[in-house]
Amino acid sequence: MAAEKPRLARLTAMLTQLQAGKIVTAKEIADRHRVSIRTIYRDIRTLEESGIPIVTIEGKGFSIMEGYKIPPVLFTQEEANALITAEQLVKNNKDHSLTTQFESAITKIKAVLKYNQRDKTAFLSSRLQVRDNFEKNKTSNYLIQLQSTITNYQLVRINYFSLEKTRSNREIEPFALYTTQENWILIAFCRLRNDFRAFRLDCILQMEVLSANFKPHDMTLEEYLEKCRKNYSNTPDIPMSKA
């Protein structure tokens, strides 16, 4: 087991964890920092006494009062290096919306790096190369927008050209996204087929987000994939790809 972090470092990391999640349990915090739950409760009291407005939700966990903002955290050099590596990986992704939005986000992150870190990350960036999709081909531009439709339960209309060369118009209820073999796949409830289907983003010719919302589906992605595993002997990539 890794050595316990110094308390100040742990308290700072806890603030970041609390700000990143809507509700975080004491066990999740304790497991992450490899300390006892009793220690976490003491740390929570310390943060409260220092003026951090932590809300305790009985039987669920902790959160930071809505609207409260913590000043930007400082990155370690290793964390900065990890971000630069992620930047190189994302640049070669085939979805244009992802690369554009990540570029915007990483620019803001770089702005809070210390000057010596900026020099080192720029140097590291020049010494990294990702050879997947080396030509940087972009085959879709819908990933980020579809992520919003999933979280907002928005109905979507697509013009779809399947791998079997069949064109169709669908109204779908976006459910989840996954990536395989450099392609992004949308799992959605198709109102035309009255069942869940998988749609490759690079096969979507046109997409329109409608004003109507749909009722959230009462299952997790893991439950859906487990259901697929029971229904098919192959991996879900093959049978679900037929829309």
| CATH class label of the largest domain | Mainly Beta
What is the CATH architecture assignment of the largest domain?
A: Roll
Q: Classify the beta-strand content into a percent band.
A: 15-25%
Please state the average pLDDT score. Answer: 87
* Number of distinct beta strands: 7
Overall, the morphology is globular
| Order of secondary-structure elements | HHHEEHHHHEEEEEH
The N- to C-terminal Cα distance equals 47 Å
- Please tell me how large the radius of gyration is: 22 Å
Q: What structural category do the secondary elements indicate? A: alpha+beta
Task: Give an overview in words.
- The protein is α+β, with helices and mostly antiparallel strands.
- The protein folds into three domains: 7-64, Arc Repressor Mutant, subunit A, CATH 1.10.10; 77-126; 143-241, Roll (SH3 type barrels), CATH 2.30.30.
- A five-stranded antiparallel β-sheet has the order 6-5-4-3-7. A two-stranded antiparallel ribbon has the order 1-2.
- The protein has helices at residues 7-20, 26-33, 37-49, 77-91, 96-111, 115-126, 143-152, 221-231; strands at 54-57, 61-64, 154-161, 167-180, 183-190, 195-200, 204-213.
- It contains eight helices and seven strands, in the order αααββααααβββββα.
